[in-house]
Amino acid sequence: MILSDKTIIKMLKEKTLFIEPLEEGQIQPASVDIRLGNTFSVVEDTSDGIITMQNEIKYKTIVTDKYILLPGQFVLATTLEYFAMPDDLTAFVEGRSSLGRMGLFIQNAGWVDPGFEGEITLELFNANRCAIELQSGRRVGQLVFAKMDENALNPYRGKYQGQKGATGSKVFMDNDVS
């Protein structure tokens, strides 16, 4: 079940859901607007030009209120908001149609798991032929919350728990090779 604005407001007041900073106008009928933070990370070049999943990936992190995303460029960014999810609530990130129409693709790999706490890292790609100026504090998407039928048996306590800033891939920490 997707949460309504009334339920989101109730959970925020009861402190069963935490979102900071949050302005009242960000709460929409069935979602919460998310804003772009001021941290951006790009993958550093490797000597052989290959990224592997077995080795730690190096990133260059930039803290700025404005970032120029070049055509065909990929960058990690972060939400301005910090979230703490209860163990019976999941969420997913949806990009804004207005930005998609500019050629800005906003993605978040997978769901925001129950029990997750931190800023959400966004994957941004410029599919346009023109550069796009990204500005901290601008609405870039929305978080849609879905109530689970009961608490997760194993809520998220993984490698991205408590993340702040545009956090790079930690796939090298995975044990599986399949």
Automatic annotation (TrEMBL):
Q: Which GO terms describe its molecular function?
A: dCTP deaminase (dUMP-forming) activity; dCTP deaminase activity; nucleotide binding
Entry keyword Cytoplasm: no
Annotated site residues (Important for bifunctional activity) in this chain? G110, W111
Task: Indicate the residues that form the catalytic site.
Answer: E123
What superkingdom heads the lineage?
A: Bacteria
Might you give the EC number(s) for this enzyme? 3.5.4.30
Task: Output one GO BP term.
Answer: dUMP biosynthetic process
Q: Record-annotated residues binding dCTP?
A: R96, S97, S98, L99, G100, R101, D113, T121, L122, E123, Q142, Y156, K159, Q163
Pathway(s) served: Pyrimidine metabolism; dUMP biosynthesis; dUMP from dCTP: step 1/1
* The reaction(s) this protein catalyses: dCTP + 2 H2O = dUMP + NH4(+) + diphosphate
Identify the keywords attached in UniProt to this record, alphabetized: Hydrolase, Nucleotide metabolism, Nucleotide-binding
Instruction: Note the InterPro entries from the entry.
Output: dCTP_deaminase (IPR011962), dUTPase-like_sf (IPR036157), dUTPase_trimeric (IPR033704)
Tell me any Pfam family this protein matches. DCD
Q: Tell me the NCBIfam families matching this sequence.
A: dCTP_deam (TIGR02274)
Q: What does this protein do?
A: Bifunctional enzyme that catalyzes both the deamination of dCTP to dUTP and the hydrolysis of dUTP to dUMP without releasing the toxic dUTP intermediate.
* Assembly mode: Homotrimer.
**What does the similarity note say?**
Belongs to the dCTP deaminase family.
Name of the protein in its database record: dCTP deaminase, dUMP-forming
Tell me what organism the protein belongs to. Lacrimispora amygdalina
